[in-house]
Write a structure and sequence with these properties.
This protein is an alpha+beta fold. It folds into two domains: 42 residues, no CATH class; 37 residues, no CATH class. The chain contains three helices and four strands; from the N terminus they run ααβαβββ. The protein has a four-stranded mixed sheet with strand order 1-2-3-4. A hairpin with a 2-residue loop joins β3 and β4. The longest helix has 21 residues. The chain is elongated and about 45 Å long.
Length: 87
């Protein structure tokens, strides 16, 4: 199956410098999105579970990023340049 993805046309050679998703790729993405919605409806989202040491080693953290800190057993979000407990 992975080899099938190699044959998906991802651009139109007539359109220069613009990305064009073929009908095959667009259909694949639509199916993927529907499958993802179904999965999330059944199981919810999973926030990354990491330790404080792992959290502190993250690079390029942005405001709004979420984790579950397994060291403190708290959900944490990155806001205004630092990690904050959410609850």
């Amino acid at each position: 199956m992975a080899r099938d993805l190699d044959n998906f046309p991802t651009y139109d050679p007539v359109v220069k410098q613009d990305l064009y998703l073929s009908d095959v790729w667009a259909d694949f993405m639509a199916t993927f999105v529907e499958s993802l919605k179904e999965y999330l409806t059944k199981f919810g989202i999973f926030v990354p579970r990491i330790t404080t040491v792992q959290r502190d080693s993250l690079r390029n953290v942005i405001n709004g990023q979420l984790i579950y800190n397994t060291t403190t057993d708290k959900f944490q979000g990155y806001q205004a340049g630092s990690w904050q407990n959410l609850i």
